[in-house]
Every structure is written in C-alpha cells, then in structure tokens.
Amino acid sequence: MRILVVEDDKDVAGFVVRGLKEAGHVVEHADNGRDGLFMAASESFDAVILDRMLPGGIDGLKILETLRGQKNATPVLILSALADVDERVKGLKAGGDDYLTKPFAFAELLARVEALARRGKGEGPVTKLVVEDLELDLLSRQVKRAGQKVDLQPREFRLLEYLMRHAGQVVTRTMLLEGVWDYHFDPQTNVIDVHVSRLRQKVDKPFPTPLIHTVRNAGYMLRAEQV
Amino acid sequence: MFRSAGFRFAAIYAVLLAVSAAASAYYVWWATAGLLDRQVEAAIGTDWQGLAERWAERDVPGLMQTIDDRLMQNVDDDAIYLLVDSRLNRIAGNLERWPSTVQVSGPFYELQVSRAGIRSLAMVRSYDLPGGYHLLIGRDVQVRAQLRRLLTDALLWALVILLALASIGAMVVRSLFRRAIANVSVTAAAIAAGDLGQRVRLSGRGDEFDQLAEVINDMLDRIGRLMDGVRQVSNAIAHDLRTPITRARTRLEDAALHAETAADLQAAIERATQDLDGIVAVFQALLRIAEIEAGSRRAAFTRVDLAPLLADLAELYGAVAEEKDVALEIDLPGALPTFGDATLIQQAVANLLDNAVKFSPPAGTVRLSAVPAPTGPTIRVADQGPGIPAADREHATQRFFRGEAARHTPGSGLGLTLVQAVAHLHGGTLRLEENPGGGLLAVLSLPLPEEGERPNRDVTRAPLA
Predict the structure, then answer these.
(1) Terminal CA-CA length for chain A
(2) Residue B127 pairs with which residues in a beta bridge?
(3) Contacts of B451 (CB under 8 A, 6+ apart)
(4) Given A159, A166, B285, B433, which residue has the most CB atoms within 10 angstroms?
C-alpha cells in the first residue's frame, strides 16, 4: 500500500517510515505542513498518517480540512501528542478516520493504518464472512466451523465478527475495546485477553487448526494458515 | 485623587448633603419670608376690591370717604393709600406725594416712603381709575422686611455651617471607606506577596463588608485547596514516577553493561519498553484526572441510562472474574437514568470492578448492584477482599495512594482518584465502606437526571480530591 507520513519529528518519522517499509508498504514522507498538503492533494495514497502540530504555517487539521473540502476521501490517521478528549473530538470532526496519541507503539499504528486502508475497499454490504472452514452468517447470526454449529454469546459473536472482518490483519486490544465494546478508555487489567481466550475455547479448541493467533507485543490476528 | 473611590464617595456624600440642605433652606425661606410677602400682596388685593366697589357705587367722594375710614380704623398703622387726579395732585390718603418710581399700574413696588415725617419701607401697587385718577394702595413692611432679613441671614448661615459639616462628614466617610477596604486590600497584598495563609478579618457585624470578606475567604480557601492539590500531585509525580523510571533506566544500563547475548539485550529492551508504557499510562491517567477535575467535560453531559451501561461492564468483567474463579453477582434495575458523561461513568465503574476482582480472594464474590434512590442512582460494588482499614479510607482516593494490602498487586494508585473525580464532576459522591462480612464496599452516588439538567447546580463547592 502507498502511505503518506506527514510528521516533522525526525526520529519519529524515521521510525515510522522504516517500520512501514518493513511491513511491505510504499512510504512517502513530508516534514512540514505545506509539502504534506501538496503531496496529499496531488498524489493518490491508500492512507495518510498525519501529525497535528507541523511547521510551515499549515497544521494537520488545516491539511485535513482542505483535503475533505476537495472531496478527497483518503483515510487519515491523526497521530498527535494532543491527547485531551476535546482534541480527539476536534480531530475526528475535521474528517480524521482514526486518532492515535503519542507516545504510541508501532504495532498499534501499523494495525490501525492497515485497518483504515483496507476499510475503504469493501465490496458493498456482506451477509456472510468466511475464513477457511469458519463461517459467520450476519443475517441469521449463526456461526459454523467445519459444518458444525458453534454457540456464541452476543458479545462473542461481535468479537468474532470484528476479527473476521479484519482477517489477515493485526488487531490490537485497544482496537477491539473500541470496535467491539465501544469503550474509549484503558481498562487496567487485560480484560480483552480473557474474552479472546473464551472465544478461542469455542472456536479453536475443538478443531485441529487454530485460526485466532496471538501476535506478540501487538494483539491478535485471525488468519487461515500460519505461513 | 479623583480616581480614589473613597474620595468619590465622600464627594457624592457632600454634594448630596449640600443640595438637600439648600433645598430645605429654600423651602423654609419660601414658607416664612415668602409667606409674609404673599400676605401683604393678598391684603393689598383685598383692599383694592373693596375700594373698587366703593368707586363704582359712589365715585370720588365715596372713595375719599372710605379711604379716610380705613385709615382711621387701621390699628396697626401700616396701611398706605393715596388717591390722585390726572395731574398727580393728592385728593385723599396718607402720603404727601405720588412716589416718582411708581410709573405703571400692575406690579408691586417696594420703596421708601415718608409718612407723617417718618421714613419707612413700603410695598405698594397702583391702580388706574376712570377719569385719569390713580389710586395707590400699600402696606408699611418695615417690620416684616427686618424679620425677613433676619430669616434670610439665619438660613444663609445655616447653609454655610451645613457645608462645613458636609465637608467634615465627607472626610469621615472617606476614612470609614478606607478602613473598611483596608482589611481586604492588606490581605490581598499579602497573598499577592505569596502568603496564602492570610484571610480577611470579619468584623462580626454580618454587614456587606463581612459578606464580601466571606466570599473572598471562600475563594482563598478554594485556591488554597487547588494549590495543595497541585503540590500534592507534583510531589506524587516526583516520588511515584521516579520508581518505574529508575527501573527502566536500570534495566537498560544493566543490559548495556552485562548482556552477553543478543537475546538478553532484546529481552531487556522489551521489558524497559513495557516499563515506559507503564509510565505513559500513569501520565495519561494523571492528565485524564486533571481534565476531569477541571470540569471542562461538563459541557458534554447528556441524559444517560446507566442500566445497559452497567450490564455491559458486568459482561466485560464477568469473564475476568470467572477466569479468577470469582463470582460476579449482578442486581440491576430495568432503568437507571442520570445526567452525565457515559464514558466517564463507564470508566469509573470499570475501575471499581477492576479493583474488586483484583482484590477478591479465589472463590470470592463480587457484587455489582444499583438502585434508583430518591437522591439519584446509587451504584454499589462490594468485594470480599482485604478491604481498606478505616484509617486509610479518606486517603484512598488520593493520587498514588496504595494501601498495605495493595502493596504487592499491580496498579498505579490512581483508580479511586479517578472514580472520585468523576463523582465530583457529576455533583455526586464516592463513599468507601466496610462490606458487611468483610471486604470493601464502594458506593458511587450520582445525581437524578432532572437535578443534573438544572443549569445553576452548585457543583463547584464539591471538595477537591
């Protein structure tokens, strides 16, 4: 994927660019607001990682508002040290698709950017999600694995749905907390791990090959085969 | 000097006093000296009416007769009459000559007259009669004029004295004013100089100045509490963040000096990163508490039904409890409306549940219950853990406080601080009690939705954490 990083801090930018390249993406970098806006507006990207406070007279929100004003719908992840709830709301209102506060773990950033970039590419509304022999029917709200019915609680169903919609991608605990529970705070204990392990008991344990994998220092991934 | 409020008040006082004194002096003059003049004018008018009638009846002789009669009957000897013909020759009356100053009929004249050889002051008016005759009617006002002069003099002197008194009064008002605010300004100056312990002295009279002093003292108390809070936070940060920072630093330095394999180094770096993440989490918690305490999030308050919110949380933590072999009992009503910020309340209750599950012994029970009390929803989280000793309970909501029992469990010591901050933001309370049968009972009381929607709700007086 082609990703634009607009970030003025050399260390942070270098780290992010290197990491994204290692993950197999094509990365462009702008270190000030003016260049960032020019590149974002004139070229086509799958996703933009945007710092808010930038030199060059044009800050991140200005870039975002200009892009959205031009009907440019490229997914934008705002990466900012401004962590207040109000600032977050401001960023999302300006047209941001996701908001990550500094300091951040690279795994979290990567997972969120990949999720964003892929989100725009759905083939319309789906009624059935299939990964390997696991089937999730969104209409009848039934789950089957290898033809066998799996009984899930409503929340477990939503957790599995989220993992399957992001099949093949890393999903962090925070993404699950926000996407499945709609909670925007950090519960101190790892409640998510407990819920994922309960889901595994039902979806993976009775079957020979596991589908839900733990990604060290990052989160979880549902995928077909360990390559 | 004109910018001094004390001077301004004093000047206003003096001017008001002088104006009202002048007004009342004028009224007194009008009611006395003026009355004398008006009486004379009225008497002259009455005389003229009588004489005019007599003229109409019997012409010149009748008038002459009447004038003589009136002069005879005039006991006070103050009446003045003079009837002259067209060439100003005297026909009747007690004046020798027509006074030269009296030219036209109509207005009253005050003039010196000579009557039977005595000079005196008189008020006269002339009337034209048919046939070129002129009639002068008047009164001797010598005595009245003296009286009037006396009165006028007295009133003028009184005014002068009053002006002097007003000036003295103004100075007294000014110094009173100064003394009344000196108290406040001395205190304010001391506080500006850094002595936050100063308070404005109360006179004990309960007057406006006392009320002002009380408001100022309340404000100073609140500032003092805020300052204490800030000091406490910075001390806490200094002490409590030093430990994890030291740990991360030690790990890195130790690895740099002693790591023998790349794997050792990798492991040390990863653990140090986790330590730093922990520090960041503490920072975020501190900032969030500060944000909540600042009260800015009150703008986003809406009507919230707590029942589904609590059920969701119970579901989230139910799995965690089960994992630890702890039973989570739930007792929730069908609806539990309040007014507030759903995310914050979620986080507060999540913190309470997290604590309860964390400190529960294996096979223990955590109970989450809520009731719509008349004062507003009350949420209770009870556990069977070690609880908090009564002596520690009031400190338990302070930042970084960790009870003896919590010494060896993971946690930042900020969980209950946040709960308390959320409670106060909503105008509610957090009470920590002993759970009957051991353990801790945390009671979070929130306001009724109607109460929260009232605009002037007094939440600013909620004590600070």
Answers:
(1) 20
(2) B135
(3) B339, B376, B427, B457
(4) A159
Of A155, A184, A188, the CB nearest to B315: A155
Which residues lie below 8 Å from residue A92, measured CB to CB, with a gap of 6+?
A99
Sign of the C-alpha dihedral, residues A147, A153, A157, A163?
negative
| Residue pLDDT, tens place only, B124-144 | 888 887 777 888 888 887 777
CA B300 to chain A, closest CA, distance in angstroms equals 10
Cβ A183–B354 below 8 Å, yes or no? no
CA distances from B167 to B172, B174, B181 (A): 9, 10, 21
- Tokens standing for A122? 């759905």
The rounded distance, in Å, linking the Cα atoms of B220 and B214 is 10
Is B336 inside a domain boundary? yes
Output the six-digit token pair for B246: 């030291």
**Whole-complex ipTM:** 0.82
Using DSSP's 3-state secondary structure scheme, residue B319 falls into: helix
Give every CB contact of residue A13 below 8 A, 6+ residues apart in sequence: A5, A7, A29, A31
Amino acid at A142: Q
Domain span including residue B158? 5-28+149-189
Q: Are residues B308 and B252 in the same domain?
A: no
Nearest to A97 by CA among A112, A86, A82, A87: A112
Kindly list the residues from chain A whose CB atom is less than 8 angstroms away from the CB atom of residue B412: 188
Q: State if pTM tops 0.90.
A: no
What does the alpha-carbon distance between residue B74 and residue B81 come to, in Å, rounded to a whole number? 11
B358 — contact with chain A (CB < 8 Å)?
A: yes
Alpha-carbon distance of B423 to B435, in angstroms, equals: 20
Nearest to A100 by CA among A109, A92, A87: A109
Chain segment A162-204, per-residue pLDDT in tens: 999 998 889 999 999 988 988 888 776 688 999 999 999 999 9
Domain holding B40: CATH number? 3.30.450.20
Residue B179 pLDDT grade (very low, low, confident, very high; cuts 50, 70, 90) = confident
Give me the total of CB pairs closer than 8 Å, taking one residue from chain A and one from chain B: 51
Same-domain status, B307 and B389: yes
How far CA B441 is from CA of A192, B49, B380, in Å, comes to 26, 106, 7
**What's the CA gap between A119 and A58, in Å, rounded?**
28
CA distance B413 to chain A (A): 11
Q: Which domains does chain A have, with CATH numbers?
A: 2-119 (3.40.50.2300), 128-222 (1.10.10.10)
The distance from CA A44 to its chain's CA centroid, rounded to whole angstroms, is: 20
Q: Got the DSSP string for A143-172?
A: EEETTEEE---HHHHHHHHHHHHTTTS-EE
Q: Is residue B290 in some structural domain?
A: no
pLDDT value, residue B308: 92
- Asked if B214 contacts B201 with a C-beta cutoff of 8 angstroms, the reply is no
Q: Any residues with CB less than 8 A from the CB of A33 and at least 6 apart, and which?
A: A6, A54, A55, A56, A57, A58, A59, A60, A62, A63
> Which of B275, B286, B316 best probes binding to A when mutated, by most A CB atoms within 10 angstroms?
B316
Peptide bond into A55 cis (omega under 30): no
Question: Are the beta carbons of A194 and B320 separated by less than 8 Å?
Answer: yes
